[in-house]
Amino acid sequence: MSDAPSITFRPIGVLRSPYRERIDAPHQGTVVEGTESGEPAEATLELAPWVDERALLDLDGFDRVWLIYVFHLSDGWKPTVKPPRGGPRRGVLSTRAPHRPNPIGLTAVELVAVEGRTLRLRAVDLLDGTPVLDVKPYVPWADAFPGARAGWVDALDEKTGRLYAPGPRKPRKKPPPFPAM
Amino acid sequence: MSDAPSITFRPIGVLRSPYRERIDAPHQGTVVEGTESGEPAEATLELAPWVDERALLDLDGFDRVWLIYVFHLSDGWKPTVKPPRGGPRRGVLSTRAPHRPNPIGLTAVELVAVEGRTLRLRAVDLLDGTPVLDVKPYVPWADAFPGARAGWVDALDEKTGRLYAPGPRKPRKKPPPFPAM
């Protein structure tokens, strides 16, 4: 088969979150044990100027929204990756790793409020500065399949516990505001 | 805020499906009443030559995968859209309409089999020729929130029945193979 043409997207906004560095962020927004606060993080997404605010109408009735975004710190990919929770290398498309053929991320976050051009969000595993390409409403009858088998992830969950926290084992220390003497 | 830079993606493959035209496809893959066959459609996704086949390793243990794809027939967007199931215009980002700021689609499809470089899929609401940007494993503890409120969609479901089928009301007739006399 031949390649399909490339396509260019313009971010609809940039996420503001408390996670400044990769090591600080949980690997999924629902897994926060081991992060600095131990609480689901709040974040905001303000629409870029080119997106009409009316695009957000009716969104406030949804508990969750999908964010489709760019893993903007990803710089290349390999066909297999070593998941942070352990085990052998896996095919990258059977993982949620950021280093993928197209560095696109997907997370269902809690929608706290819609305030004008800004979404207030919770349980976000995204880094500050993440470019967001799309927001979609979470619709359980299209999106929720709680009984779906999840291959190697299920196997690892059985072994280590479902919400074994990836990410840093100890709270990260902030650097001192001025050089230490 | 200032705009974030645009980003270009290269499709990892092109979907082959029985749905040739927009009017033929269900609006979600799980809703097939009113389509020509009344059965969930099968489709295939073959990896483009630039993607190493090992990227698919370990995927076969998953019941479902996310497809992130391009609504390639979309040609522009408006801040509000009229959903096909009825009711007033809604903010486009509170719908799953194809005509969005970035024409990106998201569907959780059944994974039937992985055969070399090809995924066999079921319950696909995508048109033949759809460029696919990413495949991700469906992981219930990250993706399944069966109790999430779904705003105007819930309200419409209560009114018309949850699986009221959008799409054509009557089976589509195939054109005759040769011009009728």
* Major sheet size, sense and barrel closure of chain A: 6 strands, antiparallel, barrel
Q: Helix and strand string of chain A, N-terminal first?
A: EEEEEEEEEHH
Taken from the alpha-carbon principal axes, the silhouette of chain A is: globular
Number of DSSP helices of chain A? 2
Oligomer: homodimer
* Structural class by SSE content of chain A: mainly beta
Which range best describes the helical content of chain A: under 10%, 10-25%, 25-40%, 40-55%, 55-70% or over 70%? under 10%
Strand order of the largest sheet of chain A: 2-3-8-7-4-9
SSE blueprint:
The structure is a homodimer of 181-residue chains.
Chain A: E1 7-9, E2 13-16, E3 42-47, E4 64-70, E5 80-81, E6 90-91, E7 104-115, E8 118-122, E9 131-137, H1 140-143, H2 151-160
Antiparallel strand pairs in A: 2-3, 2-9, 3-8, 4-7, 4-9, 5-6, 7-8
Overview of this protein structure:
With 181 residues, the first copy, chain A, is mainly beta. Chain A has one domain (13-160): YaeB-like (Elongation Factor Tu (Ef-tu), domain 3), CATH 2.40.30. Chain A has helices spanning 140-143, 151-160; strands at residues 7-9, 13-16, 42-47, 64-70, 80-81, 90-91, 104-115, 118-122, 131-137. In chain A, the strands form 2 sheets. A 6-stranded antiparallel barrel of chain A has the order 2-3-8-7-4-9. A two-stranded antiparallel sheet of chain A has the order 5-6. Residues 165-181 of chain A have low confidence and may be disordered. The interface between A and B is large, with 79 and 79 residues. β1 (7-9) of chain A pairs antiparallel with β1 (7-9) of chain B, so a sheet runs across the interface.
